[in-house]
Specification:
Blueprint (H helix, E strand, L loop, with lengths): L7 H8 L3 H8 L7 H14 L13 E7 L4 H17 L2 E7 L4 H11 L5 E5 L4 H10 L4 E4 L10 E4 L1 H14 L5 E4 L6 H16 L9 E2 L5 H12 L7 E4 L2 H13 L9 E6 L12 E4 L2 H16 L8 E4 L2 E3 L11
Parallel strand pairs: 1-2, 1-3, 3-4, 4-5, 5-11, 6-7, 6-8, 8-9, 9-10
Antiparallel strand pairs: 10-12
Helix pairs in contact: 1-2, 1-3, 2-3, 4-11, 7-8, 9-10
Amino acid sequence: MQRSSVTLADVAAEAQVSRMSVSRALNGQAGVSEETRQRILDIANQLGYTQAARNGDTPPAIGLLVPAIDTSYMGEILSGVCSAAERLHYGLLLSAQATSTATWQTSQTTLNNNLVAGVLMVVPHDYETIVGDLKARELPYVIIDHHMNNDNEPSVTATNRRGILDAMRHLLALGHRRIGFITGRMDIASSHDRLQGYRDGLAEVGLPFEAELVCEGDFTQSVGFHHTQTLLALEERPTAIVASNDVMAFGAMDAIKAAGLTIGHDVSIVGFDDIHMASQVYPPLTTVRQPMAEMGEVAMEMLVNLIEDRVTLSYRRELPTDLIIRSSTGRAPSV
Protein backbone atom coordinates (compact mmCIF):
# COMPACT_ATOMS: atom_id res chain seq x y z
CA MET A 1 0.00 0.00 0.00
CA GLN A 2 1.48 3.34 -1.09
CA ARG A 3 1.65 6.43 1.12
CA SER A 4 1.65 9.99 -0.16
CA SER A 5 4.70 11.27 1.75
CA VAL A 6 7.03 8.35 2.30
CA THR A 7 10.43 9.42 3.62
CA LEU A 8 13.89 7.99 3.30
CA ALA A 9 13.64 7.11 7.01
CA ASP A 10 10.48 5.05 6.30
CA VAL A 11 12.34 3.01 3.68
CA ALA A 12 15.30 2.54 6.03
CA ALA A 13 13.03 1.33 8.85
CA GLU A 14 11.19 -1.12 6.60
CA ALA A 15 14.46 -2.47 5.16
CA GLN A 16 16.12 -2.47 8.60
CA VAL A 17 19.15 -0.58 7.30
CA SER A 18 20.57 2.91 7.86
CA ARG A 19 19.29 5.97 6.03
CA MET A 20 22.72 6.26 4.41
CA SER A 21 22.43 2.73 3.02
CA VAL A 22 19.08 3.65 1.48
CA SER A 23 20.56 6.80 -0.04
CA ARG A 24 23.47 4.83 -1.51
CA ALA A 25 21.19 2.15 -2.92
CA LEU A 26 18.83 4.65 -4.53
CA ASN A 27 21.67 6.69 -6.01
CA GLY A 28 23.61 3.68 -7.32
CA GLN A 29 26.59 4.35 -5.07
CA ALA A 30 29.04 1.87 -3.58
CA GLY A 31 28.77 0.78 0.03
CA VAL A 32 25.89 -1.73 -0.10
CA SER A 33 25.75 -5.24 -1.52
CA GLU A 34 23.73 -5.92 -4.66
CA GLU A 35 21.34 -8.08 -2.66
CA THR A 36 20.72 -5.28 -0.14
CA ARG A 37 20.46 -2.69 -2.91
CA GLN A 38 17.76 -4.67 -4.70
CA ARG A 39 15.84 -5.26 -1.47
CA ILE A 40 15.92 -1.52 -0.71
CA LEU A 41 14.76 -0.66 -4.24
CA ASP A 42 11.89 -3.16 -3.99
CA ILE A 43 10.78 -1.77 -0.64
CA ALA A 44 11.03 1.83 -1.90
CA ASN A 45 8.80 0.96 -4.85
CA GLN A 46 6.32 -0.89 -2.63
CA LEU A 47 6.05 2.08 -0.28
CA GLY A 48 5.77 4.60 -3.11
CA TYR A 49 8.98 6.42 -2.27
CA THR A 50 10.16 8.90 -4.89
CA GLN A 51 13.17 11.16 -5.20
CA ALA A 52 14.26 13.62 -7.84
CA ALA A 53 17.52 11.93 -8.84
CA ARG A 54 18.71 8.34 -8.82
CA ASN A 55 22.04 8.10 -10.60
CA GLY A 56 25.58 7.40 -9.59
CA ASP A 57 26.72 10.94 -10.39
CA THR A 58 24.42 12.58 -7.84
CA PRO A 59 25.81 12.68 -4.28
CA PRO A 60 23.41 12.67 -1.33
CA ALA A 61 22.47 16.26 -0.52
CA ILE A 62 22.36 18.34 2.66
CA GLY A 63 19.82 21.13 3.07
CA LEU A 64 21.53 24.31 4.29
CA LEU A 65 19.23 26.90 5.89
CA VAL A 66 20.84 30.30 6.54
CA PRO A 67 19.52 33.76 7.49
CA ALA A 68 19.34 36.27 4.65
CA ILE A 69 22.35 38.26 5.90
CA ASP A 70 25.18 39.15 3.54
CA THR A 71 28.16 39.16 5.90
CA SER A 72 31.66 37.73 6.10
CA TYR A 73 30.45 35.80 9.15
CA MET A 74 28.14 33.72 6.99
CA GLY A 75 30.79 33.36 4.31
CA GLU A 76 33.28 31.94 6.81
CA ILE A 77 30.79 29.36 8.09
CA LEU A 78 29.77 28.38 4.55
CA SER A 79 33.44 27.97 3.66
CA GLY A 80 33.81 25.34 6.39
CA VAL A 81 30.55 23.62 5.45
CA CYS A 82 31.49 23.45 1.76
CA SER A 83 34.99 22.15 2.52
CA ALA A 84 33.61 19.33 4.66
CA ALA A 85 30.80 18.55 2.19
CA GLU A 86 33.29 18.13 -0.64
CA ARG A 87 35.56 15.95 1.48
CA LEU A 88 32.64 13.77 2.64
CA HIS A 89 31.07 13.55 -0.86
CA TYR A 90 27.83 15.37 -0.11
CA GLY A 91 26.02 17.98 -2.15
CA LEU A 92 24.39 21.12 -0.71
CA LEU A 93 21.00 22.74 -1.32
CA LEU A 94 21.03 26.33 -0.03
CA SER A 95 17.96 28.17 1.28
CA ALA A 96 18.25 31.76 2.57
CA GLN A 97 15.68 32.40 5.29
CA ALA A 98 13.86 35.69 5.73
CA THR A 99 12.51 36.93 9.08
CA SER A 100 9.45 34.67 9.04
CA THR A 101 8.57 31.02 8.45
CA ALA A 102 7.63 31.73 4.81
CA THR A 103 11.00 30.60 3.47
CA TRP A 104 10.88 27.45 5.56
CA GLN A 105 7.42 26.62 4.24
CA THR A 106 8.80 26.97 0.73
CA SER A 107 11.75 24.76 1.63
CA GLN A 108 9.39 21.98 2.71
CA THR A 109 8.84 21.14 -0.96
CA THR A 110 12.43 19.95 -1.01
CA LEU A 111 11.80 17.78 2.06
CA ASN A 112 8.56 16.39 0.66
CA ASN A 113 10.44 15.32 -2.48
CA ASN A 114 13.08 13.60 -0.35
CA LEU A 115 15.87 15.64 -1.91
CA VAL A 116 18.00 15.95 1.23
CA ALA A 117 19.41 13.46 3.71
CA GLY A 118 19.72 16.02 6.52
CA VAL A 119 19.61 19.73 7.32
CA LEU A 120 22.20 22.21 8.60
CA MET A 121 20.83 25.44 10.09
CA VAL A 122 22.69 28.66 10.90
CA VAL A 123 20.95 30.83 13.56
CA PRO A 124 17.49 30.20 12.03
CA HIS A 125 14.33 32.16 12.68
CA ASP A 126 11.50 30.22 14.40
CA TYR A 127 13.86 27.45 15.45
CA GLU A 128 11.35 25.39 17.44
CA THR A 129 8.86 25.17 14.54
CA ILE A 130 11.57 24.02 12.14
CA VAL A 131 13.06 21.47 14.52
CA GLY A 132 9.62 20.11 15.35
CA ASP A 133 8.98 19.57 11.66
CA LEU A 134 12.35 17.90 11.10
CA LYS A 135 11.81 15.57 14.05
CA ALA A 136 8.37 14.63 12.73
CA ARG A 137 10.03 13.70 9.44
CA GLU A 138 12.82 11.84 11.27
CA LEU A 139 15.30 13.94 9.33
CA PRO A 140 18.72 14.47 10.97
CA TYR A 141 19.77 18.07 11.62
CA VAL A 142 22.52 20.13 13.25
CA ILE A 143 22.30 23.78 14.22
CA ILE A 144 25.24 26.20 14.08
CA ASP A 145 25.70 29.11 16.54
CA HIS A 146 22.59 28.31 18.55
CA HIS A 147 21.58 25.75 21.18
CA MET A 148 18.62 24.92 23.40
CA ASN A 149 20.54 24.15 26.63
CA ASN A 150 19.97 20.50 25.81
CA ASP A 151 23.00 18.20 25.56
CA ASN A 152 21.07 15.90 23.21
CA GLU A 153 20.31 18.68 20.71
CA PRO A 154 22.85 18.47 17.85
CA SER A 155 24.61 21.84 17.81
CA VAL A 156 27.98 23.48 17.23
CA THR A 157 28.67 26.81 18.94
CA ALA A 158 31.57 28.84 20.31
CA THR A 159 32.34 29.87 23.89
CA ASN A 160 30.14 32.96 23.55
CA ARG A 161 29.78 33.70 27.25
CA ARG A 162 33.49 33.30 27.95
CA GLY A 163 34.38 35.35 24.87
CA ILE A 164 32.45 38.40 26.06
CA LEU A 165 33.76 37.92 29.60
CA ASP A 166 37.29 38.07 28.19
CA ALA A 167 36.37 41.30 26.38
CA MET A 168 34.93 42.78 29.57
CA ARG A 169 38.03 41.86 31.58
CA HIS A 170 40.15 43.60 28.95
CA LEU A 171 38.10 46.80 29.18
CA LEU A 172 37.91 46.71 32.96
CA ALA A 173 41.70 46.31 33.15
CA LEU A 174 41.94 49.48 31.06
CA GLY A 175 39.96 51.35 33.70
CA HIS A 176 36.52 51.37 32.03
CA ARG A 177 33.65 51.26 34.50
CA ARG A 178 30.75 52.47 32.36
CA ILE A 179 30.44 50.00 29.50
CA GLY A 180 27.59 49.83 26.99
CA PHE A 181 26.45 46.59 25.39
CA ILE A 182 24.57 45.92 22.14
CA THR A 183 23.03 42.44 22.05
CA GLY A 184 22.41 40.24 19.05
CA ARG A 185 19.03 38.79 18.07
CA MET A 186 17.49 37.70 21.34
CA ASP A 187 15.65 34.76 19.79
CA ILE A 188 18.91 32.80 19.64
CA ALA A 189 20.88 31.35 22.54
CA SER A 190 24.28 32.75 21.54
CA SER A 191 22.97 36.29 22.10
CA HIS A 192 21.80 35.38 25.61
CA ASP A 193 25.17 33.76 26.30
CA ARG A 194 27.00 36.92 25.22
CA LEU A 195 24.74 39.10 27.36
CA GLN A 196 25.47 36.82 30.32
CA GLY A 197 29.20 37.25 29.67
CA TYR A 198 28.66 41.02 29.93
CA ARG A 199 26.83 40.57 33.23
CA ASP A 200 29.59 38.25 34.48
CA GLY A 201 32.22 40.89 33.78
CA LEU A 202 30.34 43.54 35.72
CA ALA A 203 29.76 41.17 38.63
CA GLU A 204 33.46 40.26 38.89
CA VAL A 205 34.33 43.83 39.87
CA GLY A 206 31.13 44.58 41.78
CA LEU A 207 29.59 46.90 39.18
CA PRO A 208 25.77 47.02 38.96
CA PHE A 209 23.89 46.00 35.82
CA GLU A 210 22.31 49.14 34.35
CA ALA A 211 19.52 48.53 31.84
CA GLU A 212 20.08 51.89 30.13
CA LEU A 213 23.50 50.71 29.01
CA VAL A 214 22.10 47.67 27.16
CA CYS A 215 20.43 47.89 23.74
CA GLU A 216 18.84 45.02 21.84
CA GLY A 217 20.40 44.65 18.39
CA ASP A 218 19.97 42.43 15.35
CA PHE A 219 23.54 42.02 14.01
CA THR A 220 23.16 44.77 11.37
CA GLN A 221 25.41 47.80 10.92
CA SER A 222 22.57 50.34 10.86
CA VAL A 223 21.27 49.12 14.23
CA GLY A 224 24.78 49.30 15.69
CA PHE A 225 24.97 52.92 14.51
CA HIS A 226 21.53 53.81 15.92
CA HIS A 227 22.08 52.19 19.33
CA THR A 228 25.49 53.82 19.72
CA GLN A 229 23.88 57.21 19.10
CA THR A 230 21.43 56.37 21.89
CA LEU A 231 24.23 55.36 24.26
CA LEU A 232 26.28 58.48 23.48
CA ALA A 233 23.25 60.65 24.22
CA LEU A 234 23.00 59.40 27.82
CA GLU A 235 23.66 62.01 30.49
CA GLU A 236 26.71 59.98 31.48
CA ARG A 237 27.84 58.30 28.28
CA PRO A 238 29.78 55.01 28.35
CA THR A 239 33.54 55.08 27.87
CA ALA A 240 33.41 51.71 26.08
CA ILE A 241 30.88 49.73 24.06
CA VAL A 242 30.80 45.99 23.38
CA ALA A 243 28.84 44.92 20.29
CA SER A 244 27.68 41.32 19.83
CA ASN A 245 29.17 41.10 16.37
CA ASP A 246 31.71 42.98 14.26
CA VAL A 247 29.13 44.37 11.84
CA MET A 248 27.30 46.20 14.65
CA ALA A 249 30.69 47.30 15.98
CA PHE A 250 31.39 48.93 12.58
CA GLY A 251 28.12 50.84 12.94
CA ALA A 252 29.15 51.87 16.44
CA MET A 253 32.48 53.15 15.13
CA ASP A 254 30.69 55.22 12.48
CA ALA A 255 28.46 56.78 15.15
CA ILE A 256 31.42 57.65 17.36
CA LYS A 257 33.22 59.33 14.46
CA ALA A 258 30.03 61.17 13.47
CA ALA A 259 29.82 62.53 17.04
CA GLY A 260 33.32 63.99 16.70
CA LEU A 261 34.80 61.54 19.19
CA THR A 262 37.98 59.46 18.88
CA ILE A 263 37.73 55.67 18.91
CA GLY A 264 40.07 54.10 21.44
CA HIS A 265 40.51 57.41 23.26
CA ASP A 266 37.08 58.90 24.02
CA VAL A 267 35.16 55.65 23.51
CA SER A 268 36.59 52.14 23.12
CA ILE A 269 34.87 49.54 20.93
CA VAL A 270 34.91 45.73 21.00
CA GLY A 271 33.21 43.43 18.47
CA PHE A 272 32.67 39.70 18.12
CA ASP A 273 33.54 37.26 15.27
CA ASP A 274 36.80 38.69 13.86
CA ILE A 275 35.60 38.77 10.26
CA HIS A 276 38.17 39.87 7.67
CA MET A 277 37.17 43.56 7.76
CA ALA A 278 37.79 43.77 11.51
CA SER A 279 41.52 44.15 10.86
CA GLN A 280 41.01 46.47 7.87
CA VAL A 281 38.82 49.23 9.35
CA TYR A 282 40.36 52.28 11.03
CA PRO A 283 41.24 51.95 13.74
CA PRO A 284 41.53 48.14 13.59
CA LEU A 285 38.83 46.53 15.73
CA THR A 286 39.46 44.73 19.00
CA THR A 287 37.20 41.69 18.81
CA VAL A 288 36.46 38.18 20.02
CA ARG A 289 37.47 35.67 17.37
CA GLN A 290 35.26 32.64 16.96
CA PRO A 291 36.36 29.81 14.64
CA MET A 292 33.56 30.20 12.11
CA ALA A 293 34.95 28.01 9.33
CA GLU A 294 35.76 25.27 11.83
CA MET A 295 32.22 25.52 13.26
CA GLY A 296 30.80 24.89 9.78
CA GLU A 297 33.14 21.98 9.18
CA VAL A 298 32.49 20.33 12.55
CA ALA A 299 28.72 20.74 12.08
CA MET A 300 28.86 19.09 8.67
CA GLU A 301 30.88 16.18 10.06
CA MET A 302 28.40 15.77 12.94
CA LEU A 303 25.44 15.74 10.55
CA VAL A 304 27.03 13.12 8.30
CA ASN A 305 27.66 10.95 11.37
CA LEU A 306 23.96 11.22 12.25
CA ILE A 307 22.90 10.43 8.68
CA GLU A 308 25.20 7.43 8.47
CA ASP A 309 24.19 6.19 11.95
CA ARG A 310 27.70 6.45 13.36
CA VAL A 311 28.30 6.77 17.08
CA THR A 312 28.41 10.42 18.15
CA LEU A 313 30.11 10.97 21.50
CA SER A 314 28.66 14.44 22.03
CA TYR A 315 25.74 16.19 20.36
CA ARG A 316 26.83 19.58 21.61
CA ARG A 317 30.21 20.99 20.59
CA GLU A 318 31.51 24.30 21.89
CA LEU A 319 34.65 25.59 20.19
CA PRO A 320 37.01 28.08 21.90
CA THR A 321 37.11 31.83 21.25
CA ASP A 322 40.10 34.18 21.47
CA LEU A 323 40.29 37.89 22.29
CA ILE A 324 42.12 39.79 19.54
CA ILE A 325 43.34 43.15 20.86
CA ARG A 326 43.74 45.99 18.35
CA SER A 327 43.64 49.79 18.38
CA SER A 328 39.91 50.34 18.92
CA THR A 329 40.37 49.92 22.67
CA GLY A 330 42.47 52.06 24.98
CA ARG A 331 42.60 53.28 28.53
CA ALA A 332 39.46 54.89 29.92
CA PRO A 333 39.55 58.69 29.58
CA SER A 334 40.32 60.48 32.83
CA VAL A 335 37.36 62.24 34.43
